[in-house]
């Protein structure tokens, strides 16, 4: 009789433990799901993300006889844009989500996220230097050509953060090997004094940054004030 009395409470105890374990797992799953969906799917609907996106995203279109030839958007990745990108990434995926290594503003790199549509198919390839000439200018002084142009074959990797201008557009990230400080007008003189044959840049805290994409199909210019 005593053995039976011992078995019954023990069995009841294990049933309770199992039930509690399932409850904890269920709540954790719910919490994770809620956390992932805490950011709207459209970046323009994200109240935290959209102000920076709208500030640093510029869109340009070129028409010929009322027919669209080229449509493109460019996002200058400044530190606050990079930070909001990483925050939105964690909100959409998880706390441990890995950010794209090219969407950065570092000591020696400036990146611009491009989405491009061209009516003439060859001009969809922004990496073709025989078709496209890309430059970065600051205060009307051309100072750099791209160090690297990264093409993306999977639009879904960037679309939640940098909305496409059209469903036919293709993503690129253009990277310039330049210190980010030059965008702010700080330490420019000391940097360029070490470079030979480099044009002088006015010393100013406010700068106009111009990114140009020129081809036989179109001339596109994206301008930001920093």
From TrEMBL:
Keywords recorded for this protein, A-Z: Membrane, Transmembrane, Transmembrane helix
Keyword Transmembrane helix: yes
Residue ranges of the TM segments: 12-34
Record-given protein name: Uncharacterized protein
Species whose genome carries this gene: Spirobacillus cienkowskii
Source organism phylogeny: Bacteria, Pseudomonadati, Bdellovibrionota, Oligoflexia, Silvanigrellales
């Amino acid at each position: 009789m005593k053995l039976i009395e011992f078995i019954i409470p023990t069995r009841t105890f294990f049933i309770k433990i199992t039930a509690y374990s399932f409850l904890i797992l269920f709540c954790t799953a719910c919490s994770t799901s809620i956390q992932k969906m805490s950011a709207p799917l459209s970046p323009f609907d994200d109240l935290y993300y959209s102000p920076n996106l709208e500030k640093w995203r510029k869109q340009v279109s070129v028409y010929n006889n009322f027919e669209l030839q080229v449509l493109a958007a460019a996002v200058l990745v400044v530190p606050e844009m990079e930070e909001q990108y990483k925050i939105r990434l964690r909100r959409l995926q998880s706390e441990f989500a890995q950010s794209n290594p090219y969407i950065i503003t570092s000591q020696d790199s400036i990146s611009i996220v491009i989405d491009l549509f061209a009516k003439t198919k060859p001009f969809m390839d922004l990496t073709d230097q025989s078709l496209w000439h890309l430059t970065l200018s600051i205060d009307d002084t051309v100072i750099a050509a791209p160090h690297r142009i990264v093409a993306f074959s999977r639009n879904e990797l960037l679309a939640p953060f940098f909305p496409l201008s059209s469903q036919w557009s293709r993503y690129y990230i253009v990277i310039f090997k330049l210190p980010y400080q030059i965008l702010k007008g700080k330490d420019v003189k000391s940097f360029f004094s070490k470079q030979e044959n480099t044009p002088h840049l006015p010393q100013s805290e406010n700068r106009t940054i111009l990114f140009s994409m020129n081809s036989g199909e179109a001339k596109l210019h994206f301008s930001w004030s920093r």
